[in-house]
Amino acid sequence: MRDDSSSGKASNVTPSCSQSRNSHPHPYAHLFERLNGFDESIYNIQKLGKDKVCRLPHCIRVLLESAVRNCDGFLVTQDDVERILDWDALVNHKRTDGSVMLDVPFIPARVILQDFTGVPCVVDLAAMRDAMVELGSDPLKINPRVPVDLIIDHSVQVDRVRSKDAVTYNEEMEMHRNSERFSFLKWAAKTFSQMLIVPPGSGIVHQVNLEYLAKVVVTRNGVCFPDSLVGTDSHTTMIDGLGIVGWGVGGIEAEATMLGQPISMTLPPVLGVRLVGRLSPACTTTDLVLHVARILRMRGVVDHFVEFFGEACASLSAPDRATLANMSPEFGATIAYFPPDEMTLKYLLNTGRSTGEVEKIKAYLLQQGMFRTYENTGQKVSYTDVLEVDLSKIEPCIAGPKRPQDEVLLRNLKREFIVRSGSLRLELVRKPSYMDGSRKYLQGSVVIAAITSCTNTSNPSVMVGAGLLARKAVDLGLSVAPYIKTSLSPGSHVVQRYLESADLLPALEELGFYLTGFGCMTCIGNSGDLPEEVTAAIQSSPDLVVSAVLSGRVDIDFETEPLGICKNGKEVFLRDIWPSPSAVNEVVEKVLLPSLFKEAYQNIQQGNERSATALQQTIFHLLEESRRIHLLVVIFLLRALQGASSKSGRNGFENRSLESPFCVQQACAVTVGCDLLQLYRETRTPLIVIAGVKAVIAESYERIHRSNLVGMGVLPLQFLEGESASSLGITGMEEFSIDLTILGVNSVLPVQLDDGRQFSVKCRLQTKVELEYFRNGGILQYVLRNAASESTV
């Protein structure tokens, strides 16, 4: 059960370090003041130096406010606050001699999970309660310290299509396959405080977050602060489009955040993307997204924050921005951020948020200098670099056939598809039995078409556009081949409601796009059985998905070749049925009402009748062995084993891309691992922690991997500059003795080999908090011992 009210009075609120071990006055109490026009209070970061703060990118200001508010001298220190405030000097101008740490802590306002990656997090919480009993302490002390939302959306599969009962059947199959998992989550929802479980059949995690869960500004205990989050799904970045800083993290980082621990992160470079111009009438938001994904991928933005600005931002709706932010993982950025502005407030009102709530949000953002205005040209934000994107130059496009960043202009689709799928020969082939005689070639035929994913279905303009196109096609007598597996899997019930209100759903159904479920389905591989011949996929706007099934192929020139023949025998081209932007906007303005969102979400915590029946068990007993899973396909087998370390850990060294320089190269190009890792595989010893690994020495670390090692109590050590295992003559067969008596943050430690050789390594524990994690054996053990020592819940 979760109660995270966004309202609250600030009667006699006194700032203090609530997370510190010893209560003492807050070091930034002088920033604490009343929110103009309201009873709540804020930490006004502009008092740190308005000129300096105003030069910070808006996304960095969110990090700064979090550090100020959570500063307790241990998890977050005043040095951390100063580093963020000096972002411009440290990151942009490199004003550091190398001894200044660029790592800072970040404590998000909340955590969001989906069931596939979220179940192990909840399993760990349950295990910690068992451990508390073993320690002789109260298990009820183990609860999330920040609000946690878990949306069940990754379990539904497209088993039945092209029928009215498809959605009912698919949801019933979902309940049958996942009854044990769902029962466990129901138990968790009733057992843990600050945890909301959104039942299956409610929608896709990121769209539910956008339409319902997101606050923009949160109020707790009479204090207002920016909404922010991390999630166990890479597309958590979608919420950046609403002016909320959020990104995807690994499970260990998510658990640490749930338990009130900060995320350690390096101050990121921020690329400013200036948007200018307007999209042409032939383009959709999806075209914009695919184009930007390609150029940012080429630019290189890994480990960057991306922040959009420019006059064109003012014309992009919040769903348009969210669609673009959703694709951040595809171009490699940590976040793709749109600072909140009038469009943000308009979206909040349109989706059912109250007027009073929105007024408070605006007041807070204005007082903090976090509200984006487009008239104040004198406000100069400092970015690491700036890239300009002219929307007027974007053309209709698709992406594929392998990667979402592989943009293909629609006018070049036929030629490019042939070139990029050259490994599939264009020749006469024996067609499978499910295909009719209308296609001479198998290659290029459409056999599956899905309107799905939170990327597209959260955007009413492209969904309404697809519906208008479908209605025009049906009116002209066009149809879809019966062998094409068509499906419509919206990200929320709001989509179904406005398509029905606009009378567009019947036309989509006529073309085979019946509702199949509300969740991540085809877009994450839950498409059900597919023909063996399917070897390529393209990503496009819903409008073009409908166009593709009408033509039955993707090796087509939409400009010169018809989609089909209408009732009177005339050829029908894409341009004949493509809806104008004005027609789309007219329908959107008419049917997209706040009441739709209120109706869709008023009973979301109860779910539908099927989910209520499946989740009625309140006591969960985890069996060591379960026979049910042996009847399921592999993807569900993996899900059923989540949280069972003795099973799921066996794949730890199965990745064929793992190369070991300590192995003698055979005829194969890639080896699985060294002799020790091979022994772990043969003896089924799972993963490095259970295998007894206490330290890892490497030349460098990827951010999340280093953090995960620390979180699990494994010491990350790094060779000194210019040294490596190769240069030191290390074979991997030595015994290592590491002196931990001088262990400290970023300390240099001596390593003694059994043959007498010595060398030094750098400790990659980067904060005092991480040092405590390691000394306690990991984050969970650290939190467990602290909780056990607390006198009250």
From TrEMBL:
Q: What is the lineage of its organism?
A: Eukaryota, Sar, Alveolata, Apicomplexa, Conoidasida
Start and end residues of each stretch annotated as Disordered: 1-23
Q: What class of enzyme is it?
A: lyase
Q: What family, per the record?
A: Belongs to the aconitase/IPM isomerase family.
Q: What reaction(s) does this enzyme catalyze? A: citrate = D-threo-isocitrate
Q: Name one GO molecular function term.
A: aconitate hydratase activity
Write the protein's name.
aconitate hydratase
Domain Aconitase/3-isopropylmalate dehydratase large subunit alpha/beta/alpha, by residue range, is: 92-539
Which organism is this protein's natural source?
Answer: Eimeria brunetti
